[in-house]
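hiii, so i know i said id send this last week but things got crazy w the move. better late than never?? heres the sequnce for the chain we talked about at the cafe, plus the structure i predicted for it. fair warning i was half asleep when i ran it
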Amino acid sequence: MIDWNVAVQTGTRLVRPGPQVSPREARQVVTELRELSAVAQGHVREFTGMDGGIDASPAKVVDRPGWIRANVDGFRVVLEPLMEQLQARRGSSAFGGGVGGVVIQAVGSRVTGMQVGAILAYMASRVLGQYELFLPPDPAGRAPTGRLTLVAPNIVHAEQELNVDPHDFRLWVCLHEETHRAQFASVSWLRAYVQDQMTAFLLASDLDPGALLERLRGVGEAVADAVRGGEGNLIDAIQTPEQREILDRLTAVMTLAEGHGDYVMDAVGPEVVPTVADIRAKFQHRREGASQFDRTIRRLLGLEMKMKQYAEGSRFVKEVIDRVGMDGFNRVWTSPNTLPTHAEIKTPSLWIGRVIGKPELPSD
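okay and structure toks below
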């Protein structure tokens, strides 16, 4: 199990402070981000044609500790039921019975909580925004099932570091994040599909001690490879064969989502963000540039893979729209059967042939 309170405490203690701004400036940033998220939502709906079930609530603007707390809440919603299933499957014999077993579990949960908190502290200074898919349920049933969150200090830090127009940059970021809100709010099955894949991935963990030992050896090799500048990462190192298949499906859908967001923010940009070309050039350079330490951490956490997702996904979306138009591309959201595979993202003509080339699509 994970001690979530320890995760929050560790993360908020380790996270670096944001850029220094006055209280008045901070209030202005929060107000403008909320306003621009609403503006961006209108542009995204008009451009993509995705307007079914759109949640019009304002974006939630948070600081870095607030982002950590929000993500811990989301992790708990997804992971706690799964952890209980895994623990029941493993049984008490894994830790030993009696007081000793309880102590081992308690210590282990605190250590894991500290590890989760340290990772969140690292991420909390880099994330500009996200669409939170998994929120604690609203007993009244009135709250949206997802929430758009913008991390104000990170947006301010990025625009200062890049020396770009603050208003344009904030709107540009909102275009990307509002595209994610449109994806999950308009496509009724998408959230459940992602959660089902995540659940299957975690339940496919191999609990055999020999296999676990082999995984741990793989973790050591991944760390060494990442330090040397290779492609090794912790996610690949700990997977079972079944998990690799599931992760391929998850990676494909997230590559589509991220690429779609990047495509929309740049395609809409010239009409509403006058300095979009300057922003994109500087932002891309920022993505690619980092210290050796930062690149190593990003590889270990699989974040380098996320950078590739933006590029591969955006190329897929652009080629499909160029060839079959926005309505043709939007057939990607028809059902899980119409999502592109890894191979189809790399070669969009394969997806076009499979989905657009068929008069009917198989039901889910």
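btw The two ends are 35 Å apart (CA to CA). thought thatd interest u
miss u guys!!
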